[in-house]
Design brief:
Helix content: over 70%
Protein name: MATE family efflux transporter
Membrane topology: Multi-pass membrane protein
Number of strands: 0
Largest sheet: none
Radius of gyration: 22 Å
Order of helices and strands: HHHHHHHHHHHHHHHH
Structural class: mainly alpha
Organism: Paenibacillus albicereus
InterPro entries: MATE_fam, MdtK-like, YsiQ
Number of helices: 16
Main location: membrane
Shape: globular
Mean pLDDT: 84
């Protein structure tokens, strides 16, 4: 049996490095694209919301498979974990290929349908068709990263992120400025750089995946299929897909609201996304590591330890995100000045930095507890909560205040904050009740419920 380390520290620090490098990739994109124009920045930010929405189609499989892999390995069912990863990869490749064809064929109509401002459509067609065409690679990366990470090997995806960032930044610089003998392609070059870096990252992850389990994966395993295991993936995965889909689709709808407010508001939201990502990186890595640990412990039958681990991850994460929020509040204006000198955009962002102090602790609460519920298979509950809260509060209420009453981007942020705390509190009540353990038929339940386990 492979020696797998599931300690919170061993899992979280490589995830943090990987996420930090992904943040640098996004920040480098934003910084370099801002050299082209603020319109180009708005197109990139808007397009990524579209891509995030479409990735839900294959994260349904990837996320469900990842949790099941950790559970099966916790229960010492290595062959089942191996089979689940192969089945998930085959399925997501087919879905990713279909999405790629759609975005290559219809970039303009899709951008228009999503209320992209008219003056941004020419840039959007170029960027969406090129980057969207590589969604099959995004599907491969998502599935393999989830599979490899849930075996306890969080370093592999980290190394991949390092290589991907180096290549992407190098090619970005070359295509934007015409350096290293590369053509000066502007935004089209940034898109091409994304495709090349994804291709190389996918190749590296495939290599790691072949050796991720005790018995090596061979090309002949592509024929492997199990209806019962696929049903298990879907049982956990489809509510997870709806849960993730609620978030990305609601964010996409919110971006259409912001787009209707003007290009300056859209660019401001994109710049704030970059700052918020930095603020939440360590907290997010702790939440993901906690999910892997909880799934592994639950699969091994250690229900009480899994319960306590969620709180351990939550309190550590809260300390980190609160500290980071204050850093962003103090120095955010100076950081934004690196990206744009537009006084209107800077003024909009300055008004949102204080609200970020409230937003981040709510996100940490919601992320850690909801992910812990997902880790033990209680995915339908988080799906129901996300559906009601995201669409009822984050979308409907924000539309009423931001568009109908005219309070703009500030109202949208306030509604986002309310949504995070509402979901986090409801999920905490569910976690504390231990109903998730009863539904799963756990053999190890605390004698006096959640309060006793917390003590």
């Amino acid at each position: 049996m492979k020696n797998r380390n599931y300690s919170l520290w061993a899992l979280s620090w490589p995830i943090f490095i990987e996420l930090f490098l992904q943040f640098l990739l996004g920040a480098a994109d934003t910084f370099m694209v801002s050299e082209i124009s603020d319109d180009a920045v708005a197109v990139v930010g808007f397009s990524h919301q579209l891509f995030n929405a479409l990735t839900v189609l294959f994260t349904v499989i990837a996320s469900g498979a990842g949790i099941l892999i950790a559970q099966k390995l916790g229960a010492r069912k290595e062959e089942d974990a191996r089979s689940i990863s192969i089945i998930a990869l085959k399925t997501t490749v087919l879905i990713g290929a279909a999405v790629s064809v759609l975005l290559i064929a219809l970039p303009g109509p899709i951008a228009s349908l999503l209320q992209m401002p008219e003056e941004l459509l020419p840039l959007a067609r170029t960027y969406i068709s090129i980057v969207g065409g590589s969604m099959i690679l995004a599907a491969i990366m998502s599935t393999l990263s989830a599979a490899i990470r849930n075996t306890g090997n969080t370093r592999g995806p980290m190394y991949t992120a390092i290589g991907m960032n180096v290549v992407h930044i190098f090619l970005n610089y070359g295509f934007i400025y015409g350096a290293f003998g590369l053509p000066e392609w502007g935004l089209a070059g940034v898109a091409a750089s994304t495709v090349v870096s994804r291709l190389l990252a996918s190749a590296l992850l495939v290599y790691m995946f072949l050796f991720a389990f005790e018995r090596r994966i061979w090309w002949g395993d592509i024929k492997l299929w199990s209806r019962s295991l696929f049903r298990e993936i879907l049982r956990i995965g489809w509510p997870l897909g709806v849960y993730s889909g609620n978030w990305v689709l609601s964010q996409l709808v919110i971006f259409t609201f912001i787009g209707s407010l003007g290009a300056a508001q859209l660019a401001a939201r994109t710049y704030m996304n970059t700052l918020e990502s930095f603020c939440f990186l360590i907290g997010f890595s702790i939440a993901l590591a906690t999910q892997i640990r909880v799934a592994h412990l639950f699969g091994a039958g250690n229900t009480r330890e899994a319960y306590k681990d969620a709180y351990k991850g939550l309190w550590i994460g809260q300390l980190v995100v609160i500290a980071n929020s204050f850093i962003i509040f103090l120095f955010g204006s100076q950081a934004l000045g690196l990206f744009t000198t537009d006084p209107q955009i800077l003024a909009i962002c300055a008004g949102l930095l204080g609200l970020n102090l409230l937003l981040q602790p709510g996100k940490m609460l919601n992320m850690t507890i909801a992910d812990s519920l997902n880790a033990v298979g209680d995915t339908r509950f988080t799906m129901y909560v996300s559906t009601l809260s995201m669409w009822g509060v984050s979308v409907a209420v924000s539309y009423f205040f931001s568009i109908h009453l005219g309070y703009g981007l500030t109202a949208i942020y306030i509604c986002m904050i309310a949504d995070e705390y509402l979901r986090g509190f409801v999920c905490w009540l569910r976690w504390r009740s231990f109903k998730w353990a009863s539904r799963a038929g756990s053999p190890e339940l605390p004698a006096q419920g959640g309060a006793a386990a917390e003590a």
